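Honest question from a wet-lab person: if I give you the sequences of every part of a complex, can you actually get the arrangement of the whole thing, not just the pieces? Trying it with mine:
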Amino acid sequence: MQPLQQEPTNYRGFRQPGIRLTEPMLPNVGRPDSDLERPRMYAIHLFDKAHATMLTECGLIPREDGIAILRALRDMERSDADDIRFEVGGGMHSGEQYLIRKLGESVGGRIHLGRSSGDLGEVAMSIFTRDQLLKLIRTINDFRLSLVSLAKNHITTIMPGYIMGQHGQVTTFGHYLLSWVSTLERDVERLRTCYRHVNRSPAGAAMMTGSDFPIDRHRVAKLLGFSEVEKNTFDAILSRDRLLETMSALTILYSSVARWSDDLLLWSSSEFAFLEIPDRFCGTSSIMMQKRNPYPPQWAKGAAAEAAGGLMMCLMVERGPTGLVILERRYSRRAITSAFTSLLGDLDLLQQMVTATKLNAATLHDRAGEYWAQATDVAGLLVRERALAWRTAHQIVGILVRLSYERGLRPYQVTPEMLDEASTAYMGRPLHLEAHKLQEALDVTRFVERRSLYGGPAPEQVLQQVAEYIATLSADAEFVETAERTIHDGLTELERAIDHLIQSE
Amino acid sequence: MQPLQQEPTNYRGFRQPGIRLTEPMLPNVGRPDSDLERPRMYAIHLFDKAHATMLTECGLIPREDGIAILRALRDMERSDADDIRFEVGGGMHSGEQYLIRKLGESVGGRIHLGRSSGDLGEVAMSIFTRDQLLKLIRTINDFRLSLVSLAKNHITTIMPGYIMGQHGQVTTFGHYLLSWVSTLERDVERLRTCYRHVNRSPAGAAMMTGSDFPIDRHRVAKLLGFSEVEKNTFDAILSRDRLLETMSALTILYSSVARWSDDLLLWSSSEFAFLEIPDRFCGTSSIMMQKRNPYPPQWAKGAAAEAAGGLMMCLMVERGPTGLVILERRYSRRAITSAFTSLLGDLDLLQQMVTATKLNAATLHDRAGEYWAQATDVAGLLVRERALAWRTAHQIVGILVRLSYERGLRPYQVTPEMLDEASTAYMGRPLHLEAHKLQEALDVTRFVERRSLYGGPAPEQVLQQVAEYIATLSADAEFVETAERTIHDGLTELERAIDHLIQSE
Amino acid sequence: MQPLQQEPTNYRGFRQPGIRLTEPMLPNVGRPDSDLERPRMYAIHLFDKAHATMLTECGLIPREDGIAILRALRDMERSDADDIRFEVGGGMHSGEQYLIRKLGESVGGRIHLGRSSGDLGEVAMSIFTRDQLLKLIRTINDFRLSLVSLAKNHITTIMPGYIMGQHGQVTTFGHYLLSWVSTLERDVERLRTCYRHVNRSPAGAAMMTGSDFPIDRHRVAKLLGFSEVEKNTFDAILSRDRLLETMSALTILYSSVARWSDDLLLWSSSEFAFLEIPDRFCGTSSIMMQKRNPYPPQWAKGAAAEAAGGLMMCLMVERGPTGLVILERRYSRRAITSAFTSLLGDLDLLQQMVTATKLNAATLHDRAGEYWAQATDVAGLLVRERALAWRTAHQIVGILVRLSYERGLRPYQVTPEMLDEASTAYMGRPLHLEAHKLQEALDVTRFVERRSLYGGPAPEQVLQQVAEYIATLSADAEFVETAERTIHDGLTELERAIDHLIQSE
Amino acid sequence: MQPLQQEPTNYRGFRQPGIRLTEPMLPNVGRPDSDLERPRMYAIHLFDKAHATMLTECGLIPREDGIAILRALRDMERSDADDIRFEVGGGMHSGEQYLIRKLGESVGGRIHLGRSSGDLGEVAMSIFTRDQLLKLIRTINDFRLSLVSLAKNHITTIMPGYIMGQHGQVTTFGHYLLSWVSTLERDVERLRTCYRHVNRSPAGAAMMTGSDFPIDRHRVAKLLGFSEVEKNTFDAILSRDRLLETMSALTILYSSVARWSDDLLLWSSSEFAFLEIPDRFCGTSSIMMQKRNPYPPQWAKGAAAEAAGGLMMCLMVERGPTGLVILERRYSRRAITSAFTSLLGDLDLLQQMVTATKLNAATLHDRAGEYWAQATDVAGLLVRERALAWRTAHQIVGILVRLSYERGLRPYQVTPEMLDEASTAYMGRPLHLEAHKLQEALDVTRFVERRSLYGGPAPEQVLQQVAEYIATLSADAEFVETAERTIHDGLTELERAIDHLIQSE
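Yes, you can. This is the full assembly:
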């Protein structure tokens, strides 16, 4: 009888009939993950190198075999390692596949000692997520910087603010933009918490209990640039909160991006006409040739919905007892990969677009005072000048506004007499206010200037906020740099350790 | 003509026909939020007191009016303030409603100066979420402590671990329980990040731009026990990432709780029979009188799904431009209130149940070795004893396992001869292993002991993990205490400030 | 030893310690469903009566006991049966609870023969869903009728149609409203398919296999007004597609309602000013007294999101093997009950609001021609008059539109010369079109009239659509009546059968 | 100045700078949909042909141009039309792109007269969805047929049924399988309702109002094999309930498939050991060589979660006013395409797997009687033999079961004496039942046989259900055939009409 051991030259992996199983798989039953895992192939490659290094250093595999393996892995890098891995097949196991083909099973078959598909998958996800998170935080930081600069240019750009789609109060575009910055600041905090969780090495946890060989988990973690080791091996592989946390941090961020996109779409409508998005961000129609359609906000909104659907899917995938759900997770990985890619692209486009967009400042200013967004301050005036209770003032001005609409008058056209009419209707007596005070209360620029409370839209307050947001931004920028340095140091040590082993031969 | 100003005795709020609007609302158009907001009424009450204190201290309302307001608010507390608020109606505006009824509009109508429904709603949500988060973290901490104690008692309770529903490897119940602790640790980290975000006072932001009166936002924040002020007033009211973050942190936690619940349900089935959940946690059936149905895991699973659906709803509610979505958010608040309530109850039940559950240690032990969960270590033996490559050993043992099933043999019944048969089939030659070594490799207790790598299930490793988890737990317990102290200090200062004002009269 | 059998007077149900279980339940473990099931109590009551009738008729319980039970159930109806059931506790089992208290266990304890909590729950849900579906279809039918009438009044009310938020083409309000009717028609078709599925009686299926007693399932189905029996007893209780189908039909309907609500909100903004929603549908603000906030569209949007979240929850609840998920389904039932209640209320409000809303026809007309929504027809003109290919005409008019914007001209201000300029720029030669033809092409009323293709907005086409929509509406109205008659006949037969038994005594 | 009209040879589409817009698009702003639309390219091609035929027949374009266009479209078919379309770019507009390149703008530029990207997209989706739905119904029908056959072979294969994971009652594998058939029957009904809605032609609706040219919508509908025309043109393009309905019908179906997959996974565990899934459906592990992991149920569960997430995404995408959401819908199309593909593959695999799976009938039988799933019938015996009320019998047997567990006895080991003990404990007196009657009540085969009520598991009842399910299946098979014939007839007429035009030249 022919031995079952395969010829290395055409090694086809460990699931061959005659070993544990008697039949070959039906088509469509096994679904190679090479395609799905392509964005994480570099991380698999790193893990192959770090694991082989550790095995060799700890003497868990023969030194000469370890060195041969490391040499071969280095060889892969001469051309595109991802392509080579794709060609030899095997997805996560492409390293072993390649090594066995090249060095034979007796050498190449040693790479998988003390690890499993479980930690291969988790290490790859951790490295990938970690790297994407840093890229994302960097992108957000750039965006924050742009927004802060833009905000500084718009501390006196008056605009209406909307509540329930109605004119609410008057603010400035600068103040509005800082609300983006403020939200993005919290997004980065969430992403940093998430980073702390994925920046722990699951390597060595195998599928749940680790190995009976004395694997050095700290060494591998170090060589992969991780800050810590994920302690409990059961948890390291079979818990999924890290993935859910990542997906929900991305979804929350996207939810804000979608909201801002809706703002920009609405304001670029003919009816609002607050801003003009340059043509290079627009498409047109195959029949309605008049149309200028801003595209980036639509992409962002679509992808935000996709992220939310993806989060829901990830949550649903995980239902069931621990360890039951394994293959299903490929769907979750696809969702997370897609969300990162979309977000990085859409944030970049949005930043470009916001920076390039032209504001119609005059329209914004006129609109701010046209539909009584400044009404609150007429009530404030009554409180100050006539010592009325807020509620009394509020009701009188409510009547005034109604009268102005009934008579087809704009805010600036109302008079002290109309105010007296309202006041009399409400409490039986007039107020005799001076006309210039009423006009000042109606002035939208003064409206903003009067809001000099902490965090408000008054120009000097906005500038103070700018200063505070820049301080946090610097701290976050430093975080990215430190994190990147740690990774870089780890990976440098990995290469050095390989050099050291190879040279020691 | 009769003035529109209402008689205080039966004040019905600011939306009366004749002011801004001409018609009374149709039934079912206005939907009072008294019911929904009941769990947050205490926070509204606090805000009423803190806001009135600040207004008085800053001289924004007449001192005597401020004192009268504070006295009246204190009066409410003699009986159940929530009930009184419910009776006077008005939901978030129940304070004003009560004060106007009691003190007349000219005094009571001053409470709302410089704030809006916007900050009322947000302040209430922030206080409520903050308080619930602390309660939740405290509950999780208690749970972690129970689990750690339980784990210590089970460092040698052998059990099988499952992958894709199949026997994977051998571990201990202690090691498994620590995977819960590890996950809960990350949950607390997420909740703490979330806490940092909700523990910032939106008070004074009104609806988006704050007030034209020089409101002291820091003072109010301090009196409400907040650590910081949420800077940008636009962001403070109209961003919703804080709510989404809370909801997703709860959902992620619940997702793990649901998974563990599924473990317990499965293991309490007749087929698994790993554990016995005491009768006090069980129901039975109206016809199938033989049934003992554990209830808590089912409740937890249902509520976990509800939380996920609630998260989805919150995400969907927020679609659209900034400020458009206001009333819709009541649905989101309901979801978040419900998720907190369920989680606190379900975690408490689960803790009681897990602690009270009896393990069938003998069954667990037998089952651990019955379906080849220890197979990996036979391959490890071949690597060690015969210097085989891992992959070679893996394939040989794969054949061995198949042979054992084909011949109806249990793992402990296989012999060195069968191993030789497998080895010969694979690579054309036998291995001649000693029987006692094979038996030792098959021993499930030794399996666990051999896994003494960092984070593994070997008893001494589990004990070390216990020590590390207790350290983090202490830090988290301290966090709760510090946070509670800060809140307590703020609220104490609030009462002292009110005393001071009242006494100064 | 005291027998365990309880005194009837204070019967507390079948789960007492000492029977199958040894301990009383901990608080919060059993969670009575009385509150949740209140909207379905009438259905439980009907099932109790029909089941007892069948048991008596078939001789499965002693005739005199059956009659005593039926008499007692009839007695409950003298006051509010739901209240009585609530008081005796027991939720779904309140019938038995009441009967045992009243008639003793030896008589009252016979009601549950041959059924289980399983069919109690499913029968109640089927009856409830069936009844709510008919109510909903009736509500939608009323709405369709209102919309069709309204549409007839607006066949010449010109308005712009939007694509990607930009002016797309010109249509009429009548044509737009018929798009609602068309969608609602499909909603009714979906609800009718759903009705067919829930209108099958699960009664007698017990928990999955029915009973060892010769229960007459067809008889009970008949007496409850069902059209058919749900055949396979396993499927009747343990499949959940009926619930998911109901929930998704409601969600899809709500999704359209939310979209239309967004239309109305947008169009009632100051910038659009297309319509005025009467004050009785509006609220105002506690500080921004100028605000008129339409409430019903916001409620609808919130509830639509809740339905979507509820659907997601129902889908998640059902994960896991058949029969595992039972108590969790209470959450699903809550979601479905809430969705029906909200939808019925919100559709009613929306119908009232749409009917009462005043259109600003002049604004709509002006706006329709102001931003080149009619551009397409200038290209059509070129195709007709100059035999140009569509694409050529499209590009020339594209240039024309751009020129008009660059020069600050309105559509009606462009001239044949500008068209020649555009044409020359595109293809090197002018078109020499007559000015009056260009003006006609630009006329928005003519735009609509020219669209006399089937289904288009030309007035006579809209009238034809109206006729067709009314035809379908009649068929759907007839469906409701027939369905209601069938139910009524069944329930009448039930009362007659009870009369017959009681009188035969 | 150079005319802007492009050289046909390298035509790049209608969005060139200098027409409506002044700048070329930035990279990543326009995102070609060629890739996404590939599965629908054949439908675009059909629409191109049908539209050109109608334009020519109606004399809306010059006859010779129409014929040239049709010839060219036919030419595309000589090689792979999809590939050619992909190469010329343009996605949905690949037809025009190709025709202009081949015939010049003056001829090829005529194809788009009277239609828009709107109806291109919708027609393609309708044709695609219609075709996929028929394919899916056919696949389900095949599955139903297999299941019915399998069920017939298992009418006496006794097995336990589970409720809340506990042994509930006894049934047969045949009865269980018919619950699948019953559910699938409803799925087909839902898909047929959905089919009715997508089988209406939106062609000619352009973007919302159709064309000013007298387009014959009925002719195009006929030539594309549609049964009807979607009346209202606004609705035809801008409503999205059809898409949501499709997505939710697929999700509901998948939800059941996931549940059944969980059954199979659970039952193939070592603890249950109810069935053996052949090796060709299984994978193994890279370290746990003992594992036999069934793959198809995991794929199905993952894809079911993906469908649910996709549904959620589609619902979220659609938030906002009518017509705002256009590009976002690409995400929805991707989800629907993916759900169809997965479902068709997974249903096929599942059918193969279920058919090939070996049942361990002896285990199933033994297990059915081992944990008191037959207890109900002991109570039934007491009702029959001793005229006890059901509740009394139920409680006595509850005590009996408890006693048996406390004494470590199997059901078959209990005696009339123990029953008397239970009876005495409950009501103070014994029952004196004959032993052989008790044994018969405990017999699981008799349990099933006794359930001969309509829809129950008794063998003859299952056979009757089989007959009824086959009748419905035939009707559904006929539906598919009729539907396919209608499509075929339409497409045949299209080719004949083209032949006729070309030959008439």
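Two things worth pointing out. Residues 459-503 of chain C form the longest helix (45 residues). Strands of chain C lie at 158-163, 166-172, 200-201, 228-229, 275-276, 282-283, 293-294, 358-359.
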